[in-house]
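[#protein-structures] MJ: dropping Peptidoglycan-associated lipoprotein here for a structure pass
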Amino acid sequence: MRSFLNPLFALMLAAVLAACSSTPAEDDSSATTAPEPTDTSPVTPVEPATPVKPDTSSIPLTADNFYNHPSNYDGTTDTRVIYFAFDSNTVPAAAFETLRAHATYLKNNSNAKVRLEGHADERGTREYNVALSERRSQAVEKFLRVQGVSSSQIDVVSYGEEKPAASGHSEMDWAKNRRVEINYTAGTP
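AK: finished. structure tokens for Peptidoglycan-associated lipoprotein:
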């Protein structure tokens, strides 16, 4: 039986290899070249379109980024406050557009200076909240520095839970207290 399988196997292998190999035809009609342009009329410049607000639908709206979410910026929202998720010092993606605008202003106005004031909600020890609010301020500072803002234009302060924006004890109140405020100390926009 074994001697019968070896020639059969070899025959099947040869058939598979023959079926897989192909040689390209000399005249391959699938490869085409672009025709030479024949229109010699002058090109009329097109007026630039008015800027369109970027699509923010890819940024999910959650409890942790509710206040930063671009859909909330209706002209009355305070864009000098960056809100953070619970127990986090990661700058939320929803706040990137706002921070880039501040960075652009600071880069274009070398006399402008900001104080980044970090805050935390009332949960946690005083020491932990001061450290967390400092890490939040430093995260915003790092974001601005990466955008090209000079370190001489930025001061960092951390208040912990000492200066709450909301005095209640609900999740909404705590969410308002987990923040970094961007306060211009010189060259106010």
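MJ: nice. The chain has a mean pLDDT of 75.
AK: one more thing. The chain has four helices and four strands.
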